Amino acid sequence: MSLVGKKAPVFNAPAVINGEEIVESFSLEQYIGKKEVMFFFYPKDFTFVCPTEILAFQEKLGEFEKRGVAVVGVSCDTEETHLAWLMTAKENGGIEGVKYPLVADSTKTIASNFGVLAGDWNYNEEGELSFEGAPVAFRGTFFIDKDGVVRHETINDLPLGRNIDEMIRIVDAWHHVQEHGEVCPANWEEGKDAMQATRDGVASYLASH
């Protein structure tokens, strides 16, 4: 079930903030009424595709911040593993220099509540409880507004990395809608024409393109 248009699931979990400090209780509720959030799941620390995404978000962090958007990452690893990875140099496969929060979902409840857990617990034919699938999160990305409502979500399979510029485009589109009351057509980018959500508005836009 999609979370778009619904309140993002609430959680309190450990996290590493500022690339060096473990906090025992981190929640997205701290951003309500203050900032939008780009909340993204990744499969696992100390892997291969994941650091490229995490570092790419860090490289674009200033672009998100100037738009009033907080970036928060999360995986099913522990906070201690997050910290160890954050303290490892990039040339050694680490993510040193990442400053936005990384949440530890070691119970897998956050991934499950957001619908991105790549497996689940089930009983086998012998009545034994076992995990089917991968005990990690898919590459889910959720854009959450200041009211805590999910406005955009994408979920990639494990091998498929994200386009961070597309996440920024989504933010720009949402801000344009909020400011101008227009809707954004296919391939819209900041500076391009949008259109009114009326028959006349659509016809006018199509006629000019």
UniProtKB/TrEMBL annotation:
Main location: cytoplasm
This protein's record includes keyword Ion transport: no
Name used for this protein in its record: Thioredoxin peroxidase
Localisation per UniProt entry: Cytoplasm
Function description: Thiol-specific peroxidase that catalyzes the reduction of hydrogen peroxide and organic hydroperoxides to water and alcohols, respectively. Plays a role in cell protection against oxidative stress by detoxifying peroxides.
Gene3D superfamilies on file: Glutaredoxin
Family to which the UniProt record says this protein belongs: Belongs to the peroxiredoxin family. AhpC/Prx1 subfamily.
UniProt entry keywords in alphabetical sequence: Cytoplasm, Disulfide bond, Oxidoreductase, Peroxidase, Redox-active center
Keyword Kinase recorded: no
SUPFAM superfamilies: Thioredoxin-like
Pfam families the UniProt entry points to: 1-cysPrx_C, AhpC-TSA
UniProt superkingdom: Bacteria
GO molecular function, one term: thioredoxin peroxidase activity
GO biological process, one term: hydrogen peroxide catabolic process
PROSITE patterns given in the database record: THIOREDOXIN_2
GO cellular component: cytosol
Domain spans labelled Thioredoxin: 2-176
Catalytic residues as annotated in Swiss-Prot or TrEMBL: 50 (cysteine sulfenic acid (-soh) intermediate)
